Fold this sequence. Notes:
The structure holds 2 protein chains of 2 kinds.
Chain A (H helix, E strand, L loop, with lengths): L24 H13 L5 H27 L14 H25 L9 H22 L25 H34 L3 H10 L7 H34 L11 H27 L8 H32 L2 H12 L3 H13 L7 H4 L2 H28 L14 H24 L5 H15 L3 H9 L1
Helix pairs in contact in A: 1-15, 2-14, 3-4, 3-7, 3-8, 3-13, 4-5, 4-14, 5-6, 5-7, 7-8, 8-9, 8-13, 9-10, 10-11, 11-13, 15-16
Chain B lengths: L8 H5 L2 H10 L3 H5 L3 H19 L23 E10 L2 E10 L2 E7 L12 H11 L7 E3 L2 E3 L1 H16 L6 E5 L5 H13 L4 E4 L6 H11 L4 E4 L6 E5 L10 H10 L12 E6 L4 H4 L3 E4 L2 H16 L12 H11 L4 E5 L5 H13 L7 E4 L9 H13 L5 E5 L3 H4 L6 H6 L5 E6 L4 H4 L3 E4 L8 E4 L5 E4 L12 H8 L6 H8 L5 H10 L9 E2 L7 H4 L9 E6 L13 H4 L8 E2 L4 E3 L1 H6 L10 H8 L3 E7 L2 E9 L7 E5 L29 E13 L3 E2 L8 H4 L5 H11 L5 E3 H6 L7 H4 L1 H4 L36 H5 L29 E6 L8 H9 L7 H5 L8 E8 L5 E8 L18 E3 L5 E3 L9 H4 L7 E2 L38 E2 L5 H13 L12 H5 L5 E5 L6 H6 L4 E2 L11 E4 L1 E3 L16
Parallel strand pairs in B: 6-7, 6-14, 9-10, 9-12, 10-11, 14-15, 15-16, 20-25, 22-24, 28-39, 29-38
Antiparallel strand pairs in B: 1-2, 2-3, 4-5, 4-16, 8-13, 13-19, 17-18, 20-26, 21-27, 22-25, 23-24, 23-26, 29-36, 30-31, 32-33, 34-35, 37-38
Helix pairs in contact in B: 5-31, 7-18, 8-13, 11-13
Amino acid sequence: MATEPMGGKRTQLIPENFIDNEHDYESITDIIARVVLNPRPPLVWFIVTAIGFVGLNVMLMAITWLILRGTGIWGNNQPAGWAWDIVNFVWWIGIGHAGTLISAILLLMRQSWRNSINRFAEAMTIFAVMCAGLYPLLHTGRPWCDYWLFPYPNILGMWPQTRSPLEWDVFAVSTYFTISMLFWFLGLVPDIATLRDRSQSMIAKVLYGAAALGWRGSAKHWFRYEQATNILAGISAPLVLSVHTIVSFDFAVGIVPGWHTTIFPPYFVAGAVFAGFAMVLTFGLPLRALYGLKDFITEKHLDWMAKITLATGLIVFYGYVLEIFYSWYSGNVYELAVVNHRFAGPYAPFYWALIFCNGIWPQALWYHKLRKNVPFLFVTSIIIGIGMWLERFIIIPMSLTRDFLTSSWGYYSPTLWDWLLFLGTMGFFTFLLFMFIKVLPFINIFEMRDLLYKNHHTFGHDAHAAHEEEAH
Amino acid sequence: MKTKQWKSYAELAKTEEFTQWVDEEFPNRATLLDLDRRDFLKLTGAGMALAGLSGCRIMPQTKSVPYVRAPEQLVPGQSLYYATTLESRGLGIGVLVRSYEGRPVKIEGNPEHPSSLGATDVWTQSELLSLYDPERAQSVIERGEVRTWDQFFSTARPVLQKEAASGGAGIRLVTSTVVSPLYAATIGKFIRAYPNAKWIQWEPLSQVNVRKGTQLAFGKPLTPVYHLDQAKTILSLDADFLLTLPGSVRYAREFANGRRVRADKPEMNRLYTIESSYTVTGASSDHRLAVKPTDVERVARVLLTKITGSGAGQLPAGVDEAFLNALVADLKNGSGVVIPGDEQSPALHAIAHAINAAIGANGKGVTYHAPIEAKVTDQAADIKALSADIEAGKVSFLLTLGGNPIYDAPADANLKKAYLSEKCPLRAHLSHYENETAELSHWSLPESHGLESWGDLKAHDGTVGLQQPLVEPLYDTKTPTEVIALLLGQPLTGMELLRQHHAAIAEPVWRKAVHDGVLPGTASPAATVAPVANLLASLPETPASPDLEVNFRPDPTIWDGRYANNTWLQELPKPLTTIVWDNAALISPKTAKKLGLIASEGNNDAVNIAQYSGKKLIEVTVGGASVKVAVWVQPGQPDDTITLFLGYGRTKGGAVCEKQGFDVYPVRTSGSLNHALGVTVKPTNESYELAYTQPHHLMRSETTDPFGVNEALHVVEHKNRDIVRSGTLARFVETKGHLHHLHEADPERAGVAPHGESEGEHNEHPVEVAKLPTIPADDAFGLGRNHWKYLAAEPTVKSEVNKEGYNSLYPEYSRAGFNAWAMSIDLTTCIGCNACTIACQAENNIPTVGKDQVAAGREMHWIRIDHYFESADLEHVESHFMPIPCMQCEKAPCEPVCPVAATVHSHEGLNQMVYNRCVGTRYCSNNCPYKVRRFNFLKWTQGAGGATTLNYFEKPVLKMLSNPDVTVRGRGVMEKCTYCVQRINDVRIEAKKESREIQDGEIITACQQVCPTQAIVFGDINNPKSKVSLLKQQPHDYALLAELNTRPRTTYMAKIKNPNPALVKPVAAEGGH
Lengths: 472, 1073
């Protein structure tokens, strides 16, 4: 077949087989492409997409009202200039991180087990960044002036103020989005060509044909493809670290007690990967069940993802402990107050919930059986998602409402519109993700075939034999 | 011959290079000139089409008419100031009003006027908004139908003519207390024309008790005027002379003059307060005794016996004799003065005057003058008689001029019932608002505002201030004087009436008096008085009061309700409670516990209070009548005393005032105008959320603080923070002014025991401050909390503003060659009156946001008064006020975080906000440690805060309110204090025109100008001789949150108190000291 991958030059260790049961190139392609080409998606798809569509419309309504009325429809107030707007921004950005980590860093590290999850993880990255990007654009008092944050030539001779971490955000997030988008699309090209070749409808043929950019699977194409992938992966890899580092600067550069700390960059990055893997599990597990993809997203995948989640969770937890230590070690009255308030202030229940969600619950993942237990992993992924949201909530409005002058202390509570926009972005995200699943292969077909090829060459020519072997 | 113009030889020669250069430089040049016929026609056609399109839109028609004859002195764009007199709480206060192209835009104090001395109070400031209030009464209305003045007079005159036969026996004229000579004379004429007509004065807050008190003490009604400049000891007997007593603006100035502590003048007066509610005067005092209203009188009796050395009295329980002895010793030092409060009984006034006589204060600390009101009457008796007369059908024409008796008359007068009986066939009411009284009157007549009127008003000392209009009446309104004159058939203008009344004054003197705003030499002469002998025996007994008492007090912002439709005042935080848009029943923590309002066990008291205060209604019953009021548990409030504020719960009079707060007039009878005995209080289950600007109380603890420890944390946190520095005068002398961290470092003050309590019983309380060592301090984790401060490297550069010695990574700014603006605020003299907040609001077009938005934490005031309690327990509290404008930090944390450079530093040190550039990320506000930035969360100027707030767009008259020198901010934009940059620029332009430097004191910020105690000083710190520079060299000058190294240009002078050494208990010996 024309699209046979060329992986001969790779020398890599594949300690385990990442495709369960008996599959050949044809069956892999069939199973994955069927999700897209099947004219009648399962009923669940319709239901979830419909919910997502409703959410999308809620989001549009929330945005319209926000622009008509002003930031005041949210719960933000005088001490809490930022609240759910930035909490959700950081949360969504964090969720995207797993995609980049999987597609870029694991690619560079030749972790071929990533092949079955990278495509939809990358898609999640893009959609999450889209949701995240909405917030900084909309949180300003005058969103129609947001373009002033971009350095464009103008007759006023005014440039953005480059000392502001918000300005760094503009570059970090837009770069991240662009590179992620490119990387994702590039990876899609061979598979789009497959869909072009397989689709029956004329319209689909034309559309996929156009999107496939004339991919014919020639050796030259593959060679160029590999080059481009590696270059983009090389560019993306530092982005995994830089984006959330810069997002954390929004806080670390500020002087607010509870923000002004040097531990934020690594702790935010780890938190992002933590949240990102949780989100991959949250969506991956149901999809795996829905489309019968247990052979491709195997228990080993779940195990490994759980291990990464556990590891990054430990880093995050270490961050929490260090925050407490440093506030004590600094002897700074304001920093001490932050800890006091987290422990026993008005937001203490949220803090202890955070410690439970991110610190205590994930410790169960030390137990190998639980790492392969699908319902448990699903629950865990949801709990981590909540925990990471709480972490940002604890950092942002809580610190702001308890800063230097006690006279300015306040309290933050969200309004209906905060909820609607947040739920709306979730709907938007779900809608995009399910539309993507319907339109594009959410598991990388050619990389799975590549994996199969490698399996053959590692475990012998007979895939079946390999499985037998493994089963013993 | 054809000539041409040329600039260079190249041009003349028209070389190729030159043509090329021109083409490059002006690339569009050729295209326009080289139009061919077709292009020309195309362009013409397009132009016509566009012209036609634009014609499709109907443009709003506006007319711009130039002055045909320019008014005298008017230079467009430049303001003029006129002196006039406005009514503040019933008395005249002299003002200078800034007029911008014919419309008044800002009110300042008139330095020539004895009640003002250049400063004003919150009520005077707010008159500007009252003038432009869109809900003012604007037309003559008869039972809902719009009429004309002529129609009113043609209805009234026949009635008057009919009455003339009986000498006007059926005519009743109801006015507020009349302090205007012209008004009084006009009423006098009316009474002469109708000798049997009755003139009734009614004002809910009057000085009747003051007059009755002097009657008791000296045998005649008099006005006491106090002179606090030279007083070394001042005793306030329930007198809030810094905020509510007539003449308070002047008294505050005099009080502060005796209180400014400087390194070279370490001396100050001492204020004792014995009071029955927590007032700003009590908060400013050195020793404060909080007792029930009747106990004030009891204590005063004992005081008098101790001073005169004759007789003996029984002190109320809980009052320390040592305190009284120390007080007596201080009062006898030759320069003491006692001030009795307007709300206290005549007997107490008499006692106070007797004490003043005994300590030799008469003629020095206090002088007595003829009453300022035209006629001293027993107002409550009169209004009751009026009600009875109406019921009896004796009244045929009732004319109410000003006031609102239906709303605020004593409950037992039953005036509303009398009105509704319809036995009086003609009732007319002249008022600024269509209020409750107008609603029940047949005719509602619109009254002119003080800024639209000619008139005169007496000041607290009797000085006559002249009133001249700043603007033609905005609507078809009349003054009460004009109405009476017209009823008498004298169709004269206000100006003619006024001039006629003062016809004896020669024209040049008159002209100067109008210019100055004051008639010279009109202050009432001091009367010589002799106290009656054996006063105490002649006084009525103090009524026995075994249980709860109620205090009726004027609301600190809306007074008796007359200012209730003023959104500025509604949204001004009340001193000490910071409540806005509401009144509340103040109750002490102990009494709340006793009455079972708050739990007495479980959490600590503070948490229990926080869960209750400002969240529920209580039912207060006085002699059969009861009202439901929101409860506010106020530390410092005397036990068994509930303070109710008047003025709220209005039912008619404008959208701003209606349905705000609680009407307590129904429980206020003619026998208990000031305080009531025999009160019962019942808790209710009804919830009611008060809005307040400062979290004294923990917010929403019942849902978010299950552990119930936050309130304790709150107090501990505050204690650990170096926010308000304060100390005693003795400590100031001892440390040569270097007061640091009062809370720990001043063992003397820490040992001040609450009066009437034995020491040591509060030690186990979590908010105990007495036990704190200095360094290393105890904290939750046992490590020195200050150690980061002391670890900071020794400073290499010590600049003026870097006194604290912190280094910066950023280069130091050079201030050379510029003015360097800075501010100094003296916490010792700040009395927390809030005048600066409202002056700033008027000057800087600051919007109001409404109760809900304040509750959401979005109030917009650029300068706020922070209030901190300091205490060992919840009963004996001390208050600190701290005005917080923008600090104008030299290393401003807000500036680097703005992504669009909308907040930038000026070379003069101002931290500037560029509204047009702001996109509204709010990062600057987050990063501001002082939280002085204010964000336009919604379209405030379009009434987004609700129907009660200012809506410039729906109510165009409000646009006239705006200061044209200050931008009106739209939504989504951050704003903040600018040090009144528009005033700086005004002066700079003047100085530049005259080619000179800006003089010290030439620029006065709005907050500085209004401050009655001159606690705020603004100026240039590059000028070493400027007042602000000198103040910043004071040893007790300090920067707020200096450890953040923001280098604020606004600094504070530590608060110095002067407690009597005899009352300061030596601190218990403690290890480490």
